[in-house]
Amino acid sequence: MPLYYAYALLFVFYVLLVLEFLIPSGGLVGIAAVVTVISALAVAFAHSTTAGMTLLMIVALSTPLIFLAVIRIWPHTPIGRRILNRRPGQLHSPGPQRTLANGKPLDDIVGAVGVAMTNLLPSGMVKIGGLRLDAVSLGMAIDAGESVIVTKVEAGKIYVRPISEAERLATLAAASGASGPSPPPISPPSLENSPDSFDFDTLDLENPN
Fold first, then answer.
1. Cut 0.85: pTM above it
2. Which of 37, 89, 155, 160 has the most CB within a 10 Å radius?
3. What are the Acidic residues biased-composition ranges (predicted)?
């Protein structure tokens, strides 16, 4: 069999190798590429050992280079952007979630008090402001039902630590502005019946009754 058949099969192998990254075939294109390169090597070795070894070295050196080139190009292809959820021209994938289910910024819950819905070992679920949220404990296990406070939000993750009941009440009171009713103002004593204001001229000393 002529040697150019082997090189023709090698070219088909390269095409299939690139298409494997561009077409969602479930691996079928990749299998076809492997079969093609094996056929190319078989034809080359059937022609001569020298031709077979030469083709084998070409495959061994060129395949990693093609892999690297395709991997660099793949995120900018339509299928790569669809899988990575990128828009044209976007360099990075979308960051972690920054808002709650009610639309409020995630950073707004820093300092909020809640309760652990599950054991945090170290991650689990907490309930804060009526919302069930995934959280991570800071350095210690937290049992379900224990009061927690949000210490920080970092990279979309909520970090909590346990708090005492007194600290929980104090935090809730400070958050709600419940400082108790202010005492009524104390009015100064009335001077209406003081000795200085008494009119002694009107006093009837002869008829005390």
1. no
2. 160
3. 198-209
